[in-house]
Amino acid sequence: MSKLDGKVALVSGAGRGIGRAIALKLAGEGARVALNDLDAGPAAEVVAEIEAMGGEALAVVGDVTADGFADKFVAAAVDKFGGLDIIVNNAGYSWDTVIQKTTDEQFDAMLDIHIKAPFKILRAFAGPLREMAKAEAEAGQLKNRKVVNISSIGGLFGNAGQIGYASGKTALIGLTKTLAKEWGRYQVNVNCVAFGLIQTRMTETFDDGKPNMHDVGGKDIPMGVPPEFVGFINKMIPLGRPGTPQDAANAVYLFCIPESDYISGEVVLASGGLVI
Ligand SMILES: NC(=O)c1ccc[n+]([C@@H]2O[C@H](COP(=O)([O-])OP(=O)(O)OC[C@H]3O[C@@H](n4cnc5c(N)ncnc54)[C@H](O)[C@@H]3O)[C@@H](O)[C@H]2O)c1
C-alpha cells in the first residue's frame, strides 16, 4: 500500500524539470496523474514513463495562461479519473531583467504564468471541490485534499534582475495563505514550496556570456545562469550543492501525504538551507 493509492493528482508544467519529477514521484507513490505541458512531446514522454511504471496518467497539453484552459484541464482530470485530490501549480519560466529593461509584455507574462495561471486553475476547481466535499460530508467521509504552489527564494526575499518573476512568486504566497483560509472548511491543505537553486533547463549554466535561448509558447526566452553565479550560490548553500529535480519533488510530496493533514497556509523553503 503506497501513501497516495487512490488519489488523483494534477500537475502543471510536468513535461520537464521539477514538474516531471513531481509527476513521477506522485505516480510512484500510487497517484493517478493528469499532467500538463506547453509542449506535447515531453508531456507524452512523461505519460509513457508513468505507464511503464504501471501507473496511470493523462496529458492535457496546452498553455496554462490561455483563456479557458484551466477549466479544460481540471475537467479533463475529473472526467478521466473520477475525482481530484492534489493540485500542484508548477508550470513556470523566468524571463529576467532589471526594472528599467522590463517591458510591459514581459512583466505581464511573468504575472500571467506565476500568479494568474495558478489562480485560474484553483478557481476552476472551486465548483467540483464544493460538490465533492459536500457529498463526502453527507456520507460522513471527510477527506483532506492538497494544493501545493511552487514559489521561489526570489518570491520570499526578492532577487535583483528578476523583477517580474519575483513579483509573481511573491503574489503566489498571498494566494496560498488566502486560499488556505477559504478552503479550510473543505479540508483542503494549501501550502507553498519555495525552491532555491534546482538544476533544470531554467538554471543551466552558460559559458559564452550569452543566456541559453528556449522556445516558450513560440517566444524565444533567454534562460540560464552564468557559471560565476552558480559558483557563488553553491558556496552560500549550507548543504553545499544545488538541488536536483528529485529533491524538489520530495519536498512537494511532503505536502501531499496524510502526515501533513494539519499543516496549511505555510511556505517551506527547499533550498539546501539557503535563505537569501
Ligand atoms: N529551477 C529552479 O532553480 C527553480 C527555483 C525556484 C522555483 N522554480 C520554479 O519551479 C517551476 C518549474 O521550473 P523548472 O526549473 O522545472 O523549469 P523547466 O523549464 O525545466 O520546466 C518548466 C516546464 O513548464 C512548462 N511551461 C512553461 N510555461 C508553460 C505554460 N504557459 N503552460 C504550460 N506549461 C508551461 C515548460 O514547457 C517546461 O516543461 C517553475 O514554476 C519555476 O519558476 C524553479
Task: List low-pLDDT spans.
Answer: none
CA-atom Rg in angstroms: 18 Å
Bound molecules: nicotinamide-adenine-dinucleotide
Span between termini: 40 Å
| Largest sheet strand order | 3-2-1-4-5-6-9
Overall shape: it is globular
Q: Helix count?
A: 8
What's the average pLDDT?
A: 97
Largest sheet: 7 strands, parallel
Give the total of beta strands. 9
What is the element string, with H for helices and E for strands?
Answer: EHEHEHEHEHHEEEHHE
Structural class: alpha/beta
Helix fraction, binned, reads: 40-55%
Summarize the structure.
With 276 residues, this protein is of the alpha/beta class. 43% of the residues lie in helices and 16% in strands. The chain has helices at residues 17-28, 40-52, 69-81, 104-138, 153-157, 163-183, 227-236, 245-254; strands at residues 8-11, 32-35, 57-59, 86-89, 145-152, 188-195, 212-216, 219-223, 267-270.
Ordered list of secondary-structure elements with their pairings:
Elements: E1 8-11, H1 17-28, E2 32-35, H2 40-52, E3 57-59, H3 69-81, E4 86-89, H4 104-138, E5 145-152, H5 153-157, H6 163-183, E6 188-195, E7 212-216, E8 219-223, H7 227-236, H8 245-254, E9 267-270
Parallel strand pairs: 1-2, 1-4, 2-3, 4-5, 5-6, 6-9
Antiparallel strand pairs: 7-8
Helix pairs in contact: 1-2, 1-8, 3-4, 4-6
What does this protein structure show overall?
There is one protein chain. Helix 4 packs parallel to helix 6 (163-183). This protein has 276 residues and is an alpha/beta fold. The model has no long low-confidence stretch (mean pLDDT 97). Helix 1 links the parallel strand 1 and strand 2. 43% of the residues lie in helices and 16% in strands. The chain is globular and about 60 Å long. The chain has a seven-stranded parallel sheet, sandwiched between helices. Strands 7-8 form a two-stranded antiparallel ribbon. The protein has eight helices and nine strands. Nicotinamide-adenine-dinucleotide binds next to helix 1 and strand 5.
